[in-house]
């Protein structure tokens, strides 16, 4: 619009200026012509009056003079007329202009003295009149008086006003015509071809008209289209090569790698057809409060840890809540940004939520309702109607934004977690052709526990619009199947592990999530430097080091961990001064009271226990409370003799797998809560019941004292499991399963 205005406004301005100049000239000429006519008329009338006036003077007949001025006024349609004597005194004046008598006429004496006539515009009452004065002479040529003819000039202005009105109306018509014609021309030669090209590109992107030429066009636009055609041809060829090579490689490779997953996606899904949605975004732009510098951070989140490598491998679009305080500064006009920032491999589309929406949907319903509902940690779920309404609203907001992105060709939507139980139904309502999988990253409770949720039917119905629902372990799948069976009118097929409801079949399957094996890309030099730095900073030389890495969440069993370490040192005092526990703790969901209180409880407990044991330089616990990047965590894993994962309940727990995968030298022991999903795969860990503080303390001693050879053997087995069942296998299995369900 701005551009059109820039084009049209100068034209309109020039036309208006030319028209105004032309109008002024025409009005001037017209005015001159009218005044000229008036003058001529006045002269003629004066001359015809002159003879009669001379007789009046000669006969000295005043009565006749008065009659004469009235007769002439009527006959000649004058405003009035006046007869003066030779001294300029009024002898007779038309009655209707009698107040003309009082007007000051400094020019009159000059006229009488010079004997020359005078015509001029004069002001009378509120308007202007034309006055023509003619001296009257006797036979000797001596001035004996004068006549004055006065015309009303208002009709001159009426005519001029009408002339201006005509000029203005023509100008308006002309301007409107110019605007219409310009818009039509602009549309014809610019907008329509650009629109056709844009539409063609959109279809090309979605693979609908791969082989069609854009359209015929000549001139400069034709050249542009020809260039576009060449680019499209190149892309088509490149795409085919990628697909063919990808299919060949999938057959050959054994171990799941980033490249194999990429090949699978290219071969099975094609380009631009994988869409991931989660609440937490994988990259967050934030402005540091103190320095005011913006930087990009990776949030502490299991979902991010698992899905980011998958998206890096496959490309596609990830839609998530833009929660960083500088996020808006880094997106394009469609709220998208290429990530990772240093080497863009996929697109992140950010969705903006108001404080109210975040409060109700994320903090309220998702994290005060569903989170405690699904984790058996004896924290009471809170269900507020207002939170539920906001949860529905935000699910719809995400659905609308995803629908904008989905191409017309069959595509795949991979939804993450408990934040979006209603989303599958909302998408399927508008796009039944889209294949949808939902992965539930947290545990699924048994039907009795789930049945306390007031919105159970809506939640289950929303989820069952999916084609596939994945959980970490079979136990959670079974819980879900039972829940649907008991709480919903549906048919559960225990052979196929599917649920049929309203003509739609949803498959339920376990896909144990995992991590990327980054141990081969570890840089020993810089890692050693970092490890040494940490050793020095916390005085760790010669100490047995245990590590904990968690979001500060009541499900993670951090309090129990501290109590167990306390008991361990009480029970086995020989480890005083020898053992140090480092807890890396990322503050999380801090607006929720339960989380806020937990932070306070942990601070207090660490402080208390450190005070209890501290002697000289040594203190048993180092508590580091901040968001750590994966690069910052890595040296801690490498340095630790033991990693403690003591979740009270956890879907999988990727910290356990990260620790194992980073121990390339096969050192270290994993203490793992038996209430995590990971405990089912990592059976070579030292498994603990975090509620049993006594056993937990003994397990710490047991892990420390385990012979080095045994530690190695266990670590080797666990590493082999995680290496084989890495996150690429996890994603590969889900995509293979999804494409086998792909709608025709
Ligand atoms: C759990 C959830 C994830 C979530 C993560 C971090 O692992 O399953 O979906 O990303 O917690 O929680 P947050 O609320 O900070 O995203």
Protein architecture, described:
Strand 15 (491-493) and strand 16 (498-501) form a beta hairpin. With 744 residues, this protein is an alpha/beta fold. The protein is 51% helix and 17% strand. Helix 6 runs parallel beside helix 22, helix 14 packs across helix 17 (630-639) and helix 15 (558-571) runs parallel beside helix 16. It has 3 domains: 2-158, Beta-Lactamase (2-Layer Sandwich), CATH 3.30.450.20; 274-510, Glycogen Phosphorylase B (Rossmann fold), CATH 3.40.50.2000; 520-725, 3-Layer(aba) Sandwich (Rossmann fold), CATH 3.40.50.2000.
Salient structural properties:
six-stranded parallel β-sheet, Beta-Lactamase, binds 6-O-phosphono-alpha-D-glucopyranose, 22 helices, Rossmann fold, 17% strand, ten-stranded mixed β-sheet, 744 residues
Q: What ranges have pLDDT less than 50 throughout 5 or more consecutive residues?
A: none
Distance between the termini: 43 Å
Total domain count: 3
What CATH first level of the largest domain would be assigned? Alpha Beta
The CATH architecture term of the largest domain is 3-Layer(aba) Sandwich
Which ligands are bound?
6-O-phosphono-alpha-D-glucopyranose
| Average predicted local confidence, pLDDT | 91
Tally of helical runs: 22
CATH superfamily membership of the largest domain: Glycogen Phosphorylase B
**Describe the biggest sheet?**
10 strands, mixed
* Total E-strand runs: 23
What's the arrangement of secondary structure elements?
Blueprint: H1 2-59, H2 62-75, E1 80-85, E2 90-93, H3 107-114, E3 118-124, E4 127-137, E5 143-152, H4 154-205, H5 219-252, H6 258-268, E6 274-277, E7 284-287, E8 294-297, H7 302-314, E9 317-321, E10 336-339, E11 346-351, H8 355-374, H9 385-405, E12 412-416, H10 423-430, E13 435-439, H11 447-450, H12 456-463, E14 468-471, H13 474-487, E15 491-493, E16 498-501, E17 504-510, H14 524-537, E18 544-551, H15 558-571, E19 579-586, H16 593-613, E20 621-625, H17 630-639, E21 642-645, H18 654-662, E22 669-673, H19 678-681, E23 686-688, H20 693-705, H21 708-724, H22 727-740
Parallel strand pairs: 6-9, 6-12, 9-11, 12-13, 13-14, 14-17, 18-19, 18-21, 19-20, 21-22, 22-23
Antiparallel strand pairs: 1-2, 1-5, 3-4, 4-5, 7-8, 10-11, 15-16, 16-17
The chain binds 6-O-phosphono-alpha-D-glucopyranose.
6-O-phosphono-alpha-D-glucopyranose is lined by residues 279-280, 301-303, 417, 441-442, 551, 588-589.
């Amino acid at each position: 619009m701005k551009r059109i205005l820039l084009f049209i406004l100068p034209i309109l301005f020039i036309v208006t200026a030319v028209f105004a100049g032309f109008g002024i000239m025409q009005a001037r000429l017209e005015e001159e012509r009218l005044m000229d006519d008036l003058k001529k008329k006045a002269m003629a009338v004066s001359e015809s009056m002159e003879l009669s006036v001379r007789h009046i003077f000669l006969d000295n007949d005043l009565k006749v003079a008065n009659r004469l001025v009235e007769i002439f006024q009527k006959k000649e349609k004058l405003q009035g007329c006046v007869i003066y004597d030779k001294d300029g005194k009024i002898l007779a004046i038309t009655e209707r202009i009698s107040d003309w008598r009082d007007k000051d006429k400094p020019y009159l004496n000059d006229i009488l003295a010079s004997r020359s006539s005078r015509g001029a515009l004069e002001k009378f009452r509120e308007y202007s009149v034309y006055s023509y004065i003619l001296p009257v002479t006797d036979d000797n040529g001596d001035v004996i008086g004068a006549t004055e003819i006065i015309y009303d000039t208002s009709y001159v202005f009426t005519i001029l006003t009408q002339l201006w009105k005509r000029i203005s109306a023509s100008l308006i018509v002309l301007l409107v015509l110019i605007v219409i014609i310009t818009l039509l021309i602009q549309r014809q030669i610019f907008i329509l071809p650009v629109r056709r090209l844009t539409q063609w590109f959109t279809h090309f992107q979605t693979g609908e008209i791969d082989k069609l030429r854009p359209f015929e066009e000549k001139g400069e636009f034709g050249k542009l289209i020809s260039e576009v055609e060449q680019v499209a041809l190149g892309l088509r060829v490149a795409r085919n090569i990628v697909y063919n090579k990808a299919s060949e490689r999938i057959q050959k490779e054994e171990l799941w790698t980033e490249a194999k997953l990429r090949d699978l996606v290219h071969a099975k899904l094609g380009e631009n057809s994988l869409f991931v949605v989660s609440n937490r975004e994988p990259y967050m732009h934030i402005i540091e409060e103190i320095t005011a510098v913006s930087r990009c951070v990776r949030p502490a989140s299991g979902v991010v840890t698992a899905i980011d490598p998958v998206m890096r491998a496959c490309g596609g679009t990830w839609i998530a809540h833009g929660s960083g305080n500088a996020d808006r500064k880094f997106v394009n006009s469609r709220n998208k940004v290429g990530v990772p920032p240093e080497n863009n491999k996929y697109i992140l589309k950010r969705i903006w939520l108001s404080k109210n929406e975040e409060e109700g949907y994320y903090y309220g319903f998702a994290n005060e309702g569903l989170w405690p509902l699904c984790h058996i940690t004896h924290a009471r779920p809170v269900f507020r109607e207002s939170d539920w309404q906001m949860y529905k609203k935000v699910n719809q907001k995400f659905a609308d934004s995803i629908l904008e992105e989905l191409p017309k060709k069959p595509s795949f939507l991979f939804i993450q977690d408990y934040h979006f139980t209603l989303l599958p139904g909302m998408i399927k309502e508008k796009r039944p052709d889209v294949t949808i999988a939902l992965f539930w990253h947290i545990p699924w409770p048994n039907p009795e526990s789930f049945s306390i949720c007031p919105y159970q039917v809506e939640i289950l119905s929303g989820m069952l619009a999916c084609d596939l629902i994945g959980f970490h372990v079979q136990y959670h799948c079974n819980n879900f199947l039972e829940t649907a069976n008991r709480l919903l009118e549906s048919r559960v097929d225990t052979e196929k592990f599917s649920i049929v409801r309203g003509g739609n079949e949803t498959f339920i399957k376990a896909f144990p999530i995992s991590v990327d094996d980054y141990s081969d890309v570890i840089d020993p030099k810089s890692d050693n430097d970092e490890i040494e730095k940490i050793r020095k900073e916390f005085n760790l030389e010669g100490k047995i080091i245990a590590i904990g890495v968690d979001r500060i969440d009541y499900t993670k069993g951090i309090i129990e961990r501290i109590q167990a370490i306390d008991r361990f040192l009480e029970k086995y005092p020989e480890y005083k001064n020898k053992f140090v526990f480092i807890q890396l703790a990322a503050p999380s969901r801090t607006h929720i009271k339960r989380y806020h209180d937990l932070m306070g409880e942990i601070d207090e407990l660490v402080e208390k226990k450190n005070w209890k044991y501290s002697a000289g330089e040594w203190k048993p616990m180092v508590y580091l409370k901040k968001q750590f990047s994966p690069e910052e965590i890595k040296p801690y894993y490498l340095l630790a003799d033991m990693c403690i994962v003591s979740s009270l309940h956890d879907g999988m727990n990727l910290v356990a797998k990260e620790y194992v995968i980073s121990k390339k030298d096969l050192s270290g022991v994993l203490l793992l809560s038996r209430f995590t999903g990971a405990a089912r795969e990592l059976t070579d860990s030292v498994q603990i019941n975090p509620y049993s503080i006594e056993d937990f303390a003994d397990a710490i001693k047991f892990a420390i004292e385990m012979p080095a050879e045994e530690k190695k053997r266990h670590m080797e087995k666990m590493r082999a499991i995680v290496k084989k069942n890495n996150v690429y296998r996890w994603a590969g299995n889900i995509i293979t399963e999804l494409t086998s369900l792909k709608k025709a």
